[in-house]
Design a protein that fits this description.
Blueprint (H helix, E strand, L loop, with lengths): L1 E5 L7 H5 L3 H6 L3 E5 L3 E8 L2 E9 L6 H4 L3 H15 L6 E9 L2 E10 L5 E2 H7 L1 H4 L2 H20 L2 E2 L8 E4 L4 E4 L6 E2 L4 H20 L2 H12 L6 H23 L2
Antiparallel strand pairs: 1-5, 2-3, 3-4, 4-6, 5-6, 7-9, 8-11, 9-10
């Protein structure tokens, strides 16, 4: 069984006419951006707009093909959640997958490119003045805090919340969250651990480019307070301990 859904905003678009079904999505050609054992991403130009087509095949997914929500399904569901929650993200054009006797065979998703953006890690390398200008940094900090706080308020964690998955548009100062195939809803007490993991993932790169004061300002914005209080200090210690545990696991080869 195969299904393919075109989102309402793109029903009459040129890209929907070009890729009207899952078969067409797998026959499409474009500029290859990434490829691994189970997936690939290509970029397609259509009527002056660029789109990203992500395709997954069954090879390598093992038991998840049969029992769990597939990786591609998880990704489009999560992006739809983001849009519903008011979190800026890439617009989804279409998505779908094919199963045979309940077993995942292949799946695909098309998103519209977010133009004129850099991920935060590239921004830090190529335009460090943006992060070190108070007005620009406060703008990024405020938006990122809103995004992360919104996810966590819905008991959802990204689980791959690295700077490379946060896009920034320097001209307008807008922030976007992308690439979330591992995001998941949790309940306490696991939720608390996962929240710390998200924050530690952000801080892993932040500690390379930002001062402790700047990183503390992000935590204040995330918590929605103006001064450090005992719960925020406790959260900061948990984030730092997560770095220590990660470093230890890496040394031990886990």
């Amino acid at each position: 069984m195969s299904d393919w859904t075109i989102t309402p905003s793109f029903v009459d678009s040129a890209i929907a006419a070009r890729l009207p079904c899952l078969d067409a999505a797998f026959e499409a050609e474009g500029e290859r951006i990434t490829r691994d054992q189970i997936s690939e991403v290509i970029r397609i130009d259509c009527d002056g707009t660029r789109y990203y087509l992500k395709r997954y095949i069954g090879r390598g997914l093992h038991i998840r093909r049969l029992l769990w929500v597939t990786r591609i399904e998880s990704e489009w569901r999560n992006l739809l959640h983001f849009a519903c929650w008011g979190v800026p993200t890439a617009d989804i054009v279409a998505y779908g997958q094919q199963r045979r006797f309940g077993v995942f065979i292949r799946g695909a998703m098309i998103t519209r490119e977010i133009p004129d953006t850099l991920d935060l890690e590239r921004l830090a390398r190529q335009r460090p003045e943006v992060l070190h200008t108070r007005a620009h940094f406060d703008n990024i900090c405020r938006q990122l805090a809103f995004v992360v706080r919104t996810l966590h308020a819905h008991r959802f964690t990204h689980n791959d919340l690295h700077w490379r998955n946060v896009l920034y548009r320097p001209d307008s100062g807008e922030l976007f969250l992308i690439d979330c195939p591992n995001g998941h809803f949790w309940r306490w007490p696991v939720l608390g651990y996962r929240i710390v993991k998200d924050l530690a993932s952000l801080d892993k790169v932040a500690r390379q480019y930002l001062t402790r004061t700047a990183r503390a300002r992000f935590l204040l914005a995330y918590r929605g307070i103006l001064r450090l209080d005992p719960p925020t200090k406790k959260l900061a210690r948990q984030v730092l301990r997560a770095h220590t545990r990660r470093a230890l696991r890496k040394r031990l080869g886990f």
